[in-house]
Amino acid sequence: MEFIDTHIHLQDYKARYTTEIISAAQSAGVCRFICCGTSPQDWGRVASLADEFASVVTPAFGLHPWYISSSTGEWEAELAQMLSAYPHALIGECGLDGAKNPSPEPQLGILRRHIALAHTFHRPLLIHSVKAQSWFEGMWKELPPCFVFHSFSGSLEFARQIIKSGGYISFSFSIMRHPHAAELIKTIPLSRLLFETDGPYQPPHKGEETAAETLPELAAFVASHRPETRAEVFAAVYHNSLELINYAHK
Ligand SMILES: [Zn+2]
User: Fold this and answer.
1) What is the CA(198)–ligand 1 centre distance, in A?
2) Is 3-249 a CATH 3.20.20.140 domain?
3) For the purposes of burial, counting CB atoms within 10 Å of the CB of 238, is it exposed (0-12), middle (13-18) or buried (19 or more)?
4) How far does residue 232's CA lie from ligand 1's centre (Å)?
5) Residue 70 C-alpha to ligand 1 middle, in angstroms?
6) What is the 113 CA–ligand 1 centroid distance (Å)?
7) Residue-level pLDDT, tens digit, the chain, 250 residues
8) Which of 64, 89, 146, 203 is geometrically suited to a Cys-Cys bond with 124, CB 3.0 to 4.6 A?
9) Cα four-point dihedral sign 104, 128, 249, 223
């Protein structure tokens, strides 16, 4: 069985080299990765990884809400350049974070710029949302045709809204700590489900860097709460992940 890690920050690992991370993951069946940049400061490293490991690493470029204040006004032009240079790249990680910053602006305005680029360049959007559910009200119709709420740990109601609007929901190990994990997992149609590690973040065990080879563990946890067989869940999520990676080519 093969897996795709749809959200990882390969550029942020401290304890291991990328070649080690990728070969350990491949031994566990995790064959491809979407490597997400979070600010103009790391887009160059994400691009180099996508060049070096071109057959397995798909890049994504975005300005994460945590790094808005440390970025200059040039970010949008630089992002457009990266998207032109990498025609298969996705857009993200971007989004809204009410835990880090209780003010919706300038986060909302910046997310809207990412949405505009997603429409212009016909790319999927990888969205970070923490304590920001109400800020998405009124935005559902603006979102591009292909978008993902990554490392989802929000409410059932929020999940239903995402599904209704045509989005994917991606689970990381954070779903294991969700108080309504079983119900939430069952709510998502199989065609809308993705898996990710968000490595090196969101570890299953506190204090460790999340290794990409742990993805099958997460997949097994999610599958254990689904009515389908494990093989059916894994195959469907693999198919969804490929659709996401190949979206820009359609
Ligand atoms: Zn992330």
Assistant:
1) 5
2) yes
3) buried
4) 27
5) 17
6) 19
7) 899 999 999 999 998 899 999 999 999 999 999 999 999 999 999 999 999 999 999 999 999 999 998 888 899 999 999 999 999 999 999 999 999 999 999 999 999 999 999 999 999 999 999 999 999 998 999 999 999 999 999 999 999 999 999 999 999 999 999 999 999 999 999 999 999 999 999 887 777 889 899 999 999 999 999 999 999 999 999 999 999 999 987 7
8) 146
9) negative
Residues 238/216, Cβ–Cβ less than 8 Å = no
Tokens of 80: 């457009």
- In the 3-class helix/strand/coil scheme, how is 138-168 assigned residue by residue? CCCCCCCCCEEECCCCCCHHHHHHHHHCCCE
Which residues have beta carbons under 5 A from ligand 1 (an ion)?
A: 93, 198
The Å distance, Cα 33 to ligand 1 centre, comes to: 13
What's the 92 CA to ligand 1 centre distance in angstroms? 9
Q: Where are the domains of the chain?
A: 3-249
Neighbours of 116 (CB within 10 A): 13
pTM over 0.70: yes
